[in-house]
Write a structure and sequence with these properties.
Elements: H1 16-20, E1 28-39, E2 42-48, E3 64-71, E4 74-81, E5 93-97, H2 103-111, E6 117-124, E7 135-141, H3 145-158, E8 163-169, H4 178-187, E9 192-198, H5 199-202, H6 207-213, E10 220-225, H7 228-240, E11 248-251, H8 262-267, E12 272-277, E13 280-285, H9 292-298, E14 316-321, E15 324-326, H10 334-338, E16 341-343, E17 347-349, E18 353-357
Parallel strand pairs: 7-8, 7-10, 8-9, 10-11, 12-18
Antiparallel strand pairs: 1-2, 1-6, 2-5, 3-4, 3-6, 12-13, 14-16, 14-18, 15-17
Helix pairs in contact: 6-7
The structure holds flavin-adenine dinucleotide.
Length: 359
């Protein structure tokens, strides 16, 4: 894994690498107009969208975009939710918290500056506001505040719905948007309840704490985003309290635990992969550990792709012969998987031969 280094060549306007860095298919170079330090661990990056891309980059509160960055010669793609709120007309902004030893989040926190250009794929995602007028109840942990903050400002600014936010952090210094949230709470005191939960004071959030936060709530829609254990606690507490699953909206930042490790997959003796894409059909020997998308690329094909984490669904294709197992899947339901659909960026072959067809 490349080291994160502030001196690593960015895809930066004016920097020598800018002219040579290729823009991946489906990505657009966006100018960074501002970088705001939110906490010692998190920055917001504000972008200017070129006029010809404005339509493509329209988004709904709660959605995310994918950044493709080049660090020490290697391309990395990561998803980041917009912390800006579209209806306000403010510039598109993402907020990125350092992940311990993480490649891209640390690089962005250390190296990105106004004037740089980062390659971004247009917004997508289903963690968006429901159309009811039910109370909006959100649970955010750490960087999970980003889409929630965008949703919350939409609710308070553009609807008459009541809102509650339970925001968990390890310590006060990690609270992103602390002042802005305080202002929202003052301004909408009659219909917005804000509760900060700090682990250093109260220990980690518990089901009892979640339930007590719900006291007095009527008909609600629930939104959850944060570290996996936090999300599990909240989801379980809500379902135990009788909340219908359809009212619980979740956004997972981390990939789920892989169902199959690369080593396990490599142990499967796949010999041959056939890929059909854009009227091209290529059969090639399998390279151990490669996903179906990596196989397509190794054949000089250009499969559709975006997040490369099994989250967005851009790279879906159908396995019509043989089988593949998914390292991570946040998109396909059981029926689609049964029909052979895979997110090719996460699909490792598990049979001697595999045929995959992009539609
Ligand atoms: C839809 C979506 C929206 C998101 N929105 C946001 C957002 O708004 N803000 C935000 O901050 N993040 C967001 N994320 C998370 C973000 O995409 C990145 O996952 C995050 O920034 C970490 O990336 P990284 O490159 O820094 O870490 P990575 O280099 O990917 O590493 C992540 C972690 O895994 C560990 N790791 C990596 N490789 C290995 C290995 N081989 N063995 C063991 N451990 C390993 C690292 O030590 C690190 O702790 C979002 C994710 C998704 C899917």
């Amino acid at each position: 894994m490349p080291e994160t280094s502030p001196s690593s060549p960015a895809v930066a306007a004016g920097a020598p690498s800018a002219a040579t860095a290729t823009v991946p298919d489906g990505f657009v170079p966006l100018l960074v107009t501002d970088v705001v330090r939110e906490t010692p661990e998190a920055v917001s990056v504000v972008f200017e969208i070129p006029p010809e891309s404005r339509q493509q980059f329209r988004y709904n509160a709660g959605q995310y975009l994918t950044l493709s960055v080049c660090i020490d010669g290697a391309e990395h793609r990561r998803c980041y939710s917009m912390s800006s709120t579209p209806a306000t007309g403010e510039n598109l902004r993402v907020t990125i918290k350092r992940d311990r030893d993480g490649v891209v989040s640390n690089w962005i926190n250390d190296a990105v500056a106004p004037g740089d250009r980062l390659h971004a794929a247009p917004p997508q995602g289903r963690f968006v506001l429901d159309e009811s007028d039910r109370e909006f109840v959100a649970f955010a942990g750490g960087s999970g505040i980003t889409p929630v903050y965008s949703l919350l400002r939409s609710v308070l600014g553009h609807t008459t719905r009541s809102a509650r936010l339970f925001y968990a952090n390890r310590a006060e210094s990690s609270v992103i948007f602390a002042d802005a949230l305080g202002n929202l709470s003052d301004r909408h005191a009659n219909r917005f309840e804000l509760r900060h939960h700090l682990d250093e004071t109260h220990g980690v959030a518990t089901p009892e704490g979640i339930e007590s936060f719900l006291a007095g709530a009527g008909e609600c829609e629930f939104y959850i985003c944060g570290p996996a254990p936090f999300m599990e606690t909240v989801e379980a507490a809500l379902l135990n309290a009788g909340v219908p699953a359809a009212r619980v909206h979740v956004e997972r930042f981390a990939s789920a635990v892989p169902e199959l490790t690369a080593e396990e997959a490599a142990a499967v003796v796949t010999e041959e992969v056939t890929i059909e894409l854009d009227r091209q059909k290529v059969t090639l020997p399998y390279r151990a550990g490669y996903t179906l998308m990596q196989m397509a690329r190794s054949a000089d094909m250009r499969p559709p792709s975006s997040c490369e984490t099994g989250t967005c669904g851009t790279c879906i294709a159908q396995v019509t012969e043989g089988a593949a197992q998914l390292l991570n899947n946040d998109v396909l339901d059981d029926d689609e998987i049964a029909e052979g659909y895979v997110v090719t960026c996460q699909a490792l072959p598990t049979t001697r031969t595999v045929r995959v067809v992009y539609e």
